[in-house]
Amino acid sequence: HKAFDVQSIRRDFPILSQQVNGKPLVYLDNGASAQKPLTVLDAMDRYYREMHSNVHRGAHTLGDRATAAFEGARETIRAFLNAGSTQEIVWTKGTTEAINLVANGLAPKLKAGDEILVSHMEHHANIVPWQMVAERTGAKVMPIQVSPEGELDMDAFNSLLNDRTRVLAVTHVSNVLGTINPVKELVSQAKARGVITLLDGAQAVPHFQPDVQALDCDFYVFSSHKLFGPTGIGVLYGKSALLEDMPPYQGGGEMIERVSFERTTWNVLPYKFEAGTPAIAEAVGLGAAIEYLNGLDRPAMEAAENALMARANQLVETVPGMSIIGTAKQKAPVMSFKIDGLHPSDIGTLLDQQGIAIRTGHHCAMPLMDFYGVPGTARASFAFYNTLDEVDKLFAALQKVQRLFA
Ligand code: PMP
């Protein structure tokens, strides 16, 4: 392992060393999308320069190289998640498509009166696909309540879980609150009642490595672009028995075994769910991103992220009227906040003038905004390449914004 030296790590991310509005860029919008190390850019460049062809055609050398790189990346993902087999790793466009695929795939199992449990802190991507399937099948989407601190109400969960519950779909880490949910406990209680479980790992995988066998969830989904890989690709992990049992999501090439006008049969897993030419270079890029992470000292990286969060928490009181939304005991380095007298979008604009990138708005979690009675929040989300100095710059800028505009 390379020692965890944040300055040398930052040199691996060329985009970070630039000026924005005349100031050194301070990128604290990692929850929306993270930056990419050179090894990812190089892997994609090299793929196009030396290997590109369509995959799984087998007729020539470039096709073999492209297929080997593409399937090699799938194996890298399998190992990252500790899945039992690459058959259980399906490429999707991202978290959103993965959840839509599962919701549609489970639709034939749902009937009127069935219940789908989600939580009140879900991203719209883990609410709307279930609502659409509920609309078609007569099932109901039930939200698990959240406490004022931003933790899942486990009593509410226990009383919602009943004989009509068919699916539990919850986020591993909240994109707004940073809360790390007790997913192992949630899954085990759901499984005890035969409920199918899906975990949205979009905000979890950038900070820690999940073990899908230890979690024992049926599905685990995430997006590459938040995990330091390219846009346009993501992952659906699913237990093979469940994937076998689900109909294909889209029809076309790649996903069939044999097509005739009398009868068409499906390809084996995971190809049954991968209609059409896939995002090959992007898969290679995501594989390279995970290899980059594998080369870091993970415990040191997690400690560094916790130190960023601790420093931020300490500095909150230096900004009059500032308060944090989401104070769960178990948190990833995500900080939603408000400042009395300031609209979140003005905070974002004023920080941008000082070179600091954060996200403002509803973060695709409108039910959660309604729960807290806010139109939106300002959110700083950290990655392992951020520095304590950047946290200090954020707070110096917030003090200035508060002084001048609140
Ligand atoms: N779930 C969570 C928790 C997220 O944070 C996001 C992205 N903001 C998504 C789902 C959707 O991911 P994507 O837009 O990459 O499909």
From TrEMBL:
<keyword id="KW-0663">Pyridoxal phosphate</keyword>
<dbReference type="InterPro" id="IPR010970">
    <property type="entry name" value="Cys_dSase_SufS"/>
</dbReference>
<keyword id="KW-0808">Transferase</keyword>
<protein>
    <submittedName>
        <fullName>Cysteine desulfurase</fullName>
    </submittedName>
</protein>
<comment type="similarity">
    <text>Belongs to the class-V pyridoxal-phosphate-dependent aminotransferase family. Csd subfamily.</text>
</comment>
<feature type="domain" description="Aminotransferase class V">
    <location>
        <begin position="26"/>
        <end position="394"/>
    </location>
</feature>
<dbReference type="Pfam" id="PF00266">
    <property type="entry name" value="Aminotran_5"/>
</dbReference>
<dbReference type="InterPro" id="IPR000192">
    <property type="entry name" value="Aminotrans_V_dom"/>
</dbReference>
<dbReference type="InterPro" id="IPR020578">
    <property type="entry name" value="Aminotrans_V_PyrdxlP_BS"/>
</dbReference>
